[in-house]
Design a protein that fits this description.
The protein contains 14 helices and 13 strands. It has 336 residues and is an alpha/beta fold. The chain has two domains: 154 residues, Nucleotidyltransferase, domain 5 (2-Layer Sandwich), CATH 3.30.420.40; 89 residues, Nucleotidyltransferase, domain 5, CATH 3.30.420.
């Protein structure tokens, strides 16, 4: 029987899991895990992951969920998450500590800040092993990592928010009001309500560009996720009802908001590339927004490859290996 290693990336919104056997990716899943509702959400997500984690001997773990507001501090969050995982997982736990590599739960709990939000370093380390002079752009539901893999600069979220390596915007969960405060509508500029009526998932549904299987959380109003329902939420931010304008008019407004978000990613990439001594020849795209990131690589004038293609994941796992890159990365790094 093949030895099984399971990589887990425990986020504040999703649990990402990758099963690796003899350096081959067997299964990858992303499961909604709204940890802001309570630590028991992690219990539920682990239960849903049962088929992927069953019988695994080693669990390689990274996380960003320690930032969730239910914890009084990031250090407390790291310790609480590790302890919770110990209660559920039957096997050897190896906790990823960034530049310090993997450690036991006991060692990790003694140095929680090395564990906190280190998942980007795992992906960057694996990319650097496979391709030199690569820029990683990983667009998730909430944030974007932009890392020169041979030479990451910031090691914490606070540092990376300064260096451009972390852009706090994502494919689905980001409120429209945090991307733009105004937008064109029917030939005029319109101020937007600074409230969370709609998200970037709604924007992309209005445009018809959101994949069907990446938005795992409830809409802001608890209603459905059709284009019509997304448009109703989007229009509310303009102080209007959707039927007041034709779909094509609203789509022009939505395209502007999507473009504003892309510009913020492009700005972050240019900031990273502007650092003296940075040598980048290609981009590795990852996350559920990998296809959107491809537009940035075109603007940068650099060739790109998806994370799943780079690591030569099996064809049936390649898309989700790209979307869940940190979980795959810790699994492969620990498995070798």
């Amino acid at each position: 029987m093949a030895k099984a290693t399971v990589g887990l990336d425990v986020g504040g919104a999703h649990l990402k899991i990758a099963r690796v056997e003899n350096s081959r990716i067997i299964a990858v899943r992303q499961i909604a895990c709204p940890l802001w509702q309570g630590l028991d959400r992690l219990d539920v997500a682990l239960g849903e992951a049962g088929a992927v984690i069953a019988g695994a001997e080693i669990f390689a773990i990274t996380m960003t969920a320690e930032l969730t507001e239910i914890f009084e501090s990031r250090e407390a969050g790291v310790v609480a998450i590790i302890q919770r995982l110990q209660e559920h997982l039957r096997g050897t736990l190896r906790i990823y500590m960034g530049l310090k590599g993997f450690a036991s739960p006991q060692s990790a709990c003694g140095d929680p800040l090395s564990v906190a939000s280190a998942n980007f370093l795992a992906t960057a380390a694996l990319v650097a092993q496979r391709r030199s002079k690569a820029l990683l752009i990983d667009m998730g539901s909430t944030t974007i990592d932009i890392i020169a893999c041979d030479r990451p600069l910031g090691l914490t979220d606070a540092e990376r928010l300064q260096t451009g390596e972390l852009v706090y915007t994502g494919l689905t969960r980001t409120p429209v009001s945090s991307v733009a405060t105004r937008a064109p509508l029917a030939g005029q500029w319109q101020g937007l309500a600074r409230d969370a009526f709609a998200t970037m998932a709604d924007v992309r549904r209005v445009l018809g560009t959101l994949p069907d299987d990446v938005d795992h959380h409830a809409a802001t109003d608890g209603r459905g996720k059709s284009q019509e329902e997304s448009l109703a939420r989007f229009a509310r931010g303009f102080g209007r009802d959707a039927e007041m304008r034709h779909l094509a008019t609203w789509q022009a407004s939505a395209a502007y908001v999507a473009e504003r978000q892309l510009r913020s990613i492009h700005d972050g990439a240019l900031q990273v590339l502007s650092r003296p001594g940075t040598d980048v020849e290609s981009v590795v795209t990852a996350g559920i927004g990998a296809s959107a990131v491809a537009q940035i690589t075109f603007r940068l004038g650099l060739p790109s490859i998806s994370f799943g293609d780079l690591i030569e994941a099996p064809e049936d796992q390649r898309l989700w290996a790209t979307r869940c890159a940190p979980a795959v990365a810790v699994g492969l790094l620990q498995d070798k």
